[in-house]
């Protein structure tokens, strides 16, 4: 009798185990999202965090592969190859060079980009709102003319210096726009190009005797090595103006205007979710952060005082960020 009971229990356990295995097999596999950023600096890190937070809020359950190319295009290529080998469901490129590499190596994979300034010149889109096959995203184009007009109200510069990375299509495009705007405003633009963040300090030193102000748009090398520029400029009593808030939060940039990369990341996360839910990437219009509520001002009162620059009470009251007595004040 005991032997019979043992046999019955054994059979039941075996059947139960088999049923569990079948149930496990029926569970759908989670989609895989490959997220790759060109380099680690505050702006791109904020965009990445915004993506992750939005996906979490939308209850998107997925395997997420986070990669960082560390500013190396060879590593970018290796990351794209990995995403292709892993057959990711969506590839996300943070910054122009990273996205271009993904697009070149993953022609049949949905690609969502963020922090790309000019997707048309980068070969990612046919227009500012329409991505190429399998591509959509969020652009980070900044209003250069409006920014320079605002900056000139507080410091009437005549010779403006910019430093940018020649390998970044977005930077080349913004340099061209800056030249056009400076011509309109009667400002002489003096340019120094670089290849890596390590060259920022030397580039700044080469310009200090020829300019009376610096302007930084959204260049990844500059964002990575912002202190090299601001320290050199401060030593030579030259103001730095910024077109992106995030890299300026540690001080040194007199006046910065820009939008939130974190909010841009959240907008990107919503596009990723739509792709995972079945929409084709190319059917989703390219988006941009054009809502004024995401456009912020930063004033460094300490650096301004050192350089003899004064701000109106109205401007100070309108700023979302102030640096005073070495501390960042967020309103």
From TrEMBL:
SUPFAM superfamilies assigned: Periplasmic binding protein-like I (SSF53822)
CDD domains given in the database record: PBP1_ABC_unchar_transporter (cd06325)
Domain of life: Bacteria
Protein name: Uncharacterized protein
Species this protein is from: Mucispirillum schaedleri ASF457
């Amino acid at each position: 009798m005991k032997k019979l009971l043992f046999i019955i229990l054994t059979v039941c356990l075996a059947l139960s185990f088999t049923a569990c295995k079948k149930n496990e097999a029926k569970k759908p596999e989670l989609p895989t999202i490959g997220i790759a950023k060109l380099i680690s600096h505050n702006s791109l890190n904020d965009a990445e965090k915004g993506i992750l937070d939005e996906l979490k809020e939308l209850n998107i359950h997925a395997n997420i592969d986070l990669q960082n190319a560390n500013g190396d295009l060879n590593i970018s290529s290796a990351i794209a190859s990995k995403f292709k080998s892993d057959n990711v469901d969506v590839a996300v490129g943070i910054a122009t060079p990273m996205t271009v590499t993904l697009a070149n190596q993953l022609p049949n994979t949905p690609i969502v980009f963020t922090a790309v300034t000019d997707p048309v010149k980068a070969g990612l889109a046919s227009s500012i709102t329409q991505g190429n096959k399998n591509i959509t995203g969020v652009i980070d184009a900044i209003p250069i003319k409006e920014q320079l007009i605002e900056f000139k109200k507080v410091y009437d510069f005549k010779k403006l210096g910019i430093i940018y990375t020649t390998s970044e299509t977005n930077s080349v495009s913004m340099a061209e726009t800056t030249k056009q705007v400076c011509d309109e405003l009667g400002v002489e633009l003096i340019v120094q190009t670089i290849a890596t963040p390590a060259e920022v300090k030397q580039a700044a030193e080469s310009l200090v005797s020829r300019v009376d102000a610096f302007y930084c748009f959204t260049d990844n090398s500059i964002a990575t090595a912002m202190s090299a520029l601001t320290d050199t400029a401060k030593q030579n009593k030259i103001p730095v103006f910024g077109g992106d808030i995030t890299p300026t939060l540690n001080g040194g940039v007199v006046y910065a205007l820009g939008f939130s990369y974190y909010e841009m990341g959240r907008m990107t996360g919503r596009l990723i979710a739509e792709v995972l839910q079945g929409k084709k990437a190319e059917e989703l219009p390219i988006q941009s952060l054009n809502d004024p509520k995401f456009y912020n001002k930063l004033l460094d009162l300490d650096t301004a005082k050192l350089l003899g620059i004064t701000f109106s009470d109205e401007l100070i009251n309108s700023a979302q960020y102030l640096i005073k007595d070495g501390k960042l004040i967020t309103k």
